[in-house]
Amino acid sequence: MNARINRRGFVAGAAALAGLHTRADWLKFFDRDEVEPEDFHVLRRPFGSDPSREISLLGCGGVRLCVERNNQNRIDRELATKIFGYCYRHGVNFFDTGYVYHGGDSEKFLDSVLSKYPRDSFFFTDKMPTWHVKTLDDAKRIFREQCERTAALGYFDVYMLHSISSPSQYDNVYRKIGVLDYLKDMMAEGKIKRIGFSYHGTHKFLAELVEEYPWALTLIPFNGAEPKGEPNRQVLAAKKIPIFVMSPLGGGRLAHLNTPARRHLAAAKPGVTPAEWGMRYAASFEGMQTVLSGMSQVEQAVENVRTFSRERFEKLAEADIAVYREAIDLYNKYKPVACTNCRYCECPYGIQIPEVFTWWNSFQGEGRLPADDGGPNDSQELRREFLVSYYNTIPEHARADRCTGCRKCKEGCPQWVFRIYTEMEKIAETVKRVRETYLAKGGRLTGKGVLPC
């Protein structure tokens, strides 16, 4: 780690944070920090599209804000406000949201939080949800709604074309029906300062797209497990288009690596979390401007501020990058589902798609799926643990076996490395098989499938 850091002070601070367990504890922590701020200041760099301004190396994303404990669909506004205030106070000045995030409440939330600060002290970005646009009138209506939801902020520092993935998609929406021209008109009116795009396609199309317009920035998935990340980064770096990173931890998956991967990292740098490894990895390559984090939990916000502080941050060395990639290979050995938890796939029938995949990965990613082959996973104890975890984690109405295969989830999903409905079918079949084997070998179930403790 950086030699400038007072390591004893950092460890002492980390130990103090470890004692914060409840929501009330964290609210008190943030209240104290407002009076006497911690001595961490997020590193800033000149903005590639406007070197007269600087942007923080860490950005706050509005896609996964912390939610109320008893209502997962409602933002915990008090706690989320404290998190954003903490980040702003410690140097974060890039805040991103989208039309579909939290059903539109994310835009309203950022409007209420950021309007307390001088408007020229931060960057605010929003996006046109490409998959919702069928006509120019759709785009105009959506943009009007966004302006209404964020009226106190006045304008968008950067407005992005959201989730571009293919030539036909871009052509149909932004060329043929004139949405890009409309956004240029909004820029002429001062409602937009710059235009960029978020991208999930191949590097071949990206190389064409970057010639289309003088884009202010591009937002791409980039992490150790994202196969398209590096070739896309190379295209953007060659054109000197500022690169903003989404999903640096793969929607949180890479903050919870399996045991072999964690041991590999710990052997190289004891005490450094998988999350810090992943965040530093995302910021360690040419062209990287800012790494965004949803920071849906308070621990994430505090750790990220420390990781990207000018007192602590340094890029990973080549040897460290090799170590991290080796750890990701160990994680990928058991082929976890590559869900980033972005929630664009909202199921009309109530299936909790990201939660099901997160649960599945906790067994699949550890190589602990129950089996019937006489090996170490052929165990009634493991079958019971597997079933108890599933039944108690995923509500009955939201489980994989409720998937109808309608494929409506596909419309918004930016990940093309897996098919949601195929994975749901596989998970449902596995749960059914494990359940049948468990019962056949003398196991017991009660109620609606919840096993007795």
Would you kindly provide a written description of the structure presented here, covering whatever features stand out?
The chain is of the alpha/beta class and 453 residues long. The protein folds into two domains: 40-332, TIM Barrel; 353-440. It contains 16 helices and twelve strands. It has helices spanning 7-18, 23-35, 77-89, 105-114, 136-149, 167-176, 179-188, 203-209, 229-239, 259-268, 274-282, 298-307, 318-332, 353-364, 380-393, 420-440, and strands at residues 44-47, 50-56, 58-61, 67-68, 71-75, 94-96, 123-129, 158-164, 195-199, 218-221, 243-246, 288-293. The strands form three sheets. It has an eight-stranded parallel beta barrel with strand order 3-6-7-8-9-10-11-12, surrounded by five helices. Strands 1-2 form a two-stranded antiparallel ribbon. Strands 4-5 form a two-stranded antiparallel ribbon. Strand 4 (67-68) and strand 5 (71-75) form a beta hairpin. The longest helix is centred in the last third of the chain and has 21 residues, at 420-440. The protein is globular and about 70 Å long. Mean pLDDT is 90; it is low at 1-13.
SSE arrangement:
Layout: H1 7-18, H2 23-35, E1 44-47, E2 50-56, E3 58-61, E4 67-68, E5 71-75, H3 77-89, E6 94-96, H4 105-114, E7 123-129, H5 136-149, E8 158-164, H6 167-176, H7 179-188, E9 195-199, H8 203-209, E10 218-221, H9 229-239, E11 243-246, H10 259-268, H11 274-282, E12 288-293, H12 298-307, H13 318-332, H14 353-364, H15 380-393, H16 420-440
Helix pairs in contact: 2-3, 3-12, 10-13, 14-15, 15-16
